[in-house]
Amino acid sequence: MDKLIVITGASSGIGKELAIQFSEKGYKLLLLARREELLIELNLKNTLCKKVDVTDYNSFKQAVVEAEKHFKTKVDLLINNAGIMPLDKIYNLDINTQHAMVDININGVLNGMNIVINDMKDRNTGTIINISSVAGRWTGENRTVYNGTKFAVHAISEQARRELAPFNVRLLTIAPAIVDTNLLINTKNEEVLKGYIENKKKINNGLTSKQVAKIIIYAYELPQDISLKEIVLSATKQAI
Ligand code: NDP
């Protein structure tokens, strides 16, 4: 497979599973995360692993340029997947945590899009997949800032898609409900954590990363002239 795919946040959860499944299908991969050792441990073929914080535009761009040179092909798919979700009431979240959420969940996505967008536009092909959330559609308790970041990802993706459509570039928003990953690692409030885990248990822990990755790959592998615009998905037992 001659196509180069960039996945941010590939060291865990959905991003990691995307890396494994795309690699099994023979795609060329650039995997990014801050914990580079976890990317290397995956030991995937045709894969470059780079320690990149998505909020750092220059290192993000440098990694993409390097991968394009290495694989002698341009990025065909960028998956902006990296994200954090420190849950709590807004009055309990310190301002640095709030800013980190905005920086990673929104600016990280803008950085990725900016790095590949003009090239895709000029080549009249390419796909960008932004991992938002059902939290980008409906607000919910303990998610004030997280909701804000994911609403932003939805809005940015929707209008960017309209602006890129004439250039044959696809933009797909993925909006999962609960997926069984390490996303709660940044939630420090024990009570909030307990409530989330109890709720998750009621729906058999929600979707798996494997299931989500499979759906994303299905959407990407549709012919370039078919654009799935948004996929909202959850475990059947989860109402929202
Ligand atoms: P995980 O915590 O398992 O994975 C998050 C990934 O993001 C990690 O690989 C982490 O890597 C990476 N990451 C975080 N911050 C940065 C950063 N600054 N720079 C680069 N990479 C970063 O969670 P999920 O797999 O669940 O999350 C993936 C996406 O899915 C997120 O955008 C999340 O909001 C979204 N989502 C998840 C849902 C769920 O229920 N799990 C539901 C809906 C949406 P590292 O720490 O090594 O940098």
From TrEMBL:
Keywords: NADP, Oxidoreductase
Any one Pfam family match given in the protein's UniProt record, by short name: adh_short
Species lineage: Bacteria, Bacillati, Mycoplasmatota, Mollicutes, Entomoplasmatales
One of the record's GO molecular function terms: oxidoreductase activity, acting on the CH-OH group of donors, NAD or NADP as acceptor
Species assigned in the record: Spiroplasma litorale
Family to which the UniProt record says this protein belongs: Belongs to the short-chain dehydrogenases/reductases (SDR) family.
Top-level taxon of the source organism: Bacteria
Gene3D superfamilies in UniProt: NAD(P)-binding Rossmann-like Domain
Name the record gives this protein: Oxidoreductase
